[in-house]
Amino acid sequence: MYNLEITNLAKKYENFALKNLNIKLKAGKIIGLIGENGSGKTTTIKAILNLIKIDDGTIKIFEKNNNLLTKNDKEQLGVVLDDSFFCNLYKIADINKVMKNIYTSWNEKQFYQYINEFKVPIDKMYKEFSSGTKMKVKLICAICHNSKLLILDEATNGLDPIIRYDILNLFTKFVANKKNSILISTHITTDLEHIADEIIFINEGKIILDKDMNYLQEHYGLVKCSKEDFKKINQDDYFKNLKYKDECWVLIENKKLFANNYPKLNINIPSIEELMLLFIKGE
């Protein structure tokens, strides 16, 4: 079952356009959505949430068109955007009360379990929370109304490594039942290396890379070599190259074949950040 299915999504603005995006998010999986600022990630999320009118294509959530979701369907959709929309004067009890009045499926017991687990102070107002604590509260709220699909836009930005560890652990627990899914847009690509099952790279409104994380790690390789060694590499044996400082970075998609042809060159697994750099700046 696909918790989210996007087919040939298109949206045109005066100076930007999404072009035939296709995304399929299975139950139990996490997709990481990456790309530069202005690449189309947030526009895609707004389209999923029916916040903008699309020009073409279809978007299905829980196998229904996103503009035909029932109230019960929407209760299973957890969303975290930049703004939490919580009153700054609210304490945890106030937030619980508001959420309980909004969602018929609100799980108060689960909410307070997470609040306790993540050491969120219950006697402080929301405005007194750190950015990390605010994000914890937003994520807890997104999960605790019987959510099966989380749509997260920059949910880990600006957080320290300890808080990010807690949140990433929460994500892996969320999808462990093989029924829930997460689509997460983030600039902190190292987070995705720990939790994502699939990486989708959007650039200028188009998907330029869509691969399982296992495939990326098993097949893609990065060789950092001297300019002299780079001259010895046949152009058919690599995918992208980039001159970086005094080195040549060479991206390959068949590590075994490359290792046989160039046994003296070291092959590393590229980070997502390095992949982004090579795809955008590489030749």
What descriptive keywords fit this protein?
283 residues, alpha/beta, 11 helices, 13 strands, 34% helix
Walkthrough of the structure:
- This protein is of the alpha/beta class.
- The chain is 34% helix and 27% strand.
- It contains 11 helices and 13 strands.
- The protein has helices spanning 41-48, 71-75, 92-102, 108-117, 131-143, 161-174, 189-195, 213-219, 227-231, 255-261, 272-281, and strands at 2-12, 17-26, 30-34, 56-61, 64-65, 77-80, 149-153, 181-185, 198-203, 206-212, 221-225, 240-244, 247-252.
- The strands form 3 sheets. A 6-stranded mixed sheet has the order 6-7-8-3-9-10, sandwiched between helices. Strands 2-1-4-5 form a 4-stranded antiparallel sheet, with helices on one face. Strands 11-13-12 form a 3-stranded antiparallel sheet.
- The chain is globular and about 65 Å long.
DSSP strand content: 25-35%
- From the structure provided, what is the oligomeric state, counting identical versus distinct chains? single chain
| N-to-C SSE string, H for helix and E for strand | EEEHEEHEHHHEHEHEEHEHEEHH
Mean pLDDT over the residues: 92
Shape descriptor: globular
Strand order of the largest sheet: 6-7-8-3-9-10
- Please estimate the helix content: 25-40%
Counting helices, strands and paired strands, the structural category is alpha/beta
Rg, alpha carbons:
21 Å
What's the β-strand tally?
A: 13
Distance between the termini: 39 Å
Low-confidence stretches: none
Major sheet details: 6 strands, mixed
SS summary, helix count = 11
